[in-house]
Design brief:
Layout: H1 2-9, H2 22-26, H3 47-59, E1 63-67, H4 74-87, E2 91-93, H5 108-111, E3 117-121, E4 142-147, E5 157-161, H6 164-174, H7 183-192, H8 196-203, H9 211-223, E6 227-230, H10 233-242, E7 248-250, H11 260-270, E8 276-281, H12 282-285, H13 291-297, E9 303-308, H14 313-323, H15 338-344, E10 348-352, H16 358-367, E11 372-377
Parallel strand pairs: 1-2, 1-3, 3-4, 4-5, 6-7, 6-8, 8-9, 9-11, 10-11
Helix pairs in contact: 3-6, 4-6, 8-9, 9-10
Length: about 400
Amino acid sequence: MARALALAQSGRPGPVHLSLPGDVLDANVPEAKPAPVAAAPPALARASDVTAALAALTEAKRPVIVAGPGMARGRRWAAVQKLARSLAVPALPSESPRGLDDPWLRGANARLAEADVVLLLGKALDFSLRFGRAPAWPAGCRFVQVTAEPAPKRDGVVSIIADPPTVVDQLTAAAPSPAATGWADEVARTRAATPPAWNEWRRSAATPMHPLAVCAAVQPWLDRGATLVADGGEFGQWAQAGLDARERLINGPSGSIGSAMPMAIAARLARPAAPVFALLGDGTFGFHALEVDTALRYGLPFVAVVGNDARWNAEHQLQIRHYGAERAVACSLLPTRYDRVAEALGGHGEHVERAADLPAALERAVASGKPSVVNVMIDGVPAPVFSHRAASH
């Protein structure tokens, strides 16, 4: 147990699977003093590696820092942002299963095709980054990969085997005064920009409502410090693209579907004073709907905003693209009243069909002090996709 806990905290932190055979579980054992949990000390980068990485970044015309999931939130993300400011280099997280099509990046994903040097912090140069190849990246783009574990050798990739958070501190401490190129500001403006149609969709009174009209009602809560949890699927991608939150959890590089409900409970445990808003689709809700019962028993309220288009829309959109609408099969759901599921379990339910009614419904859900499901009837539009022209979808 002690070794498993130490491994979870060392090197590349994360879950560890521990198998206990049945005879061990059934055995009588004497009471023993718990073994100390001693995580391995963080590995430093060599001074020569720090110097070389800083030289590559400062000599580049369009450098970029890309942070993996373990570096993309909390204190670690704050340290990455501090490094980015000290070097005047844009820093972007990479924790979406859609990789370079991460909807949170919006138009900034296209700017990566201009990068000449990329610092990867706790992020492998894997499928989600198109393996660093053109046309997603320029031919000749160089990569500096900081990883706690050895990575396969590749041309154009320099690996620094060390603890990424520690290396960030080393780089920040040794960073020279940056030259003001304006590149970081350009990337920031591109990410902040949204297509003109988005403002119309946020204000639209159309029924069923556009996912961005749902985002417009949720954003004020995030501005006041609520935690955002967003799942996968088309509605989840709209939530990730259309909402900005200081604290957020998404479904991660594995692309799991259904994780929003358990993550919402965990988020309430981690930040008990802050409301939690979990945005997920109707198909996704079905995976872990009974976690409403768990949240109720443990007094961990959250608001699940279910985008209900009566469809497995991610699969529906894939089938339309590949086979045509006339051959789309097995993607339809019923317009089920998921709010009543929450009520039957003892939680709070709201059913919303008009955008004008959504803010008040969210207020009532938070005020109830119970795990809540706000069932919102939405238009089943495809997820937003950004290209070099920053197309809306």
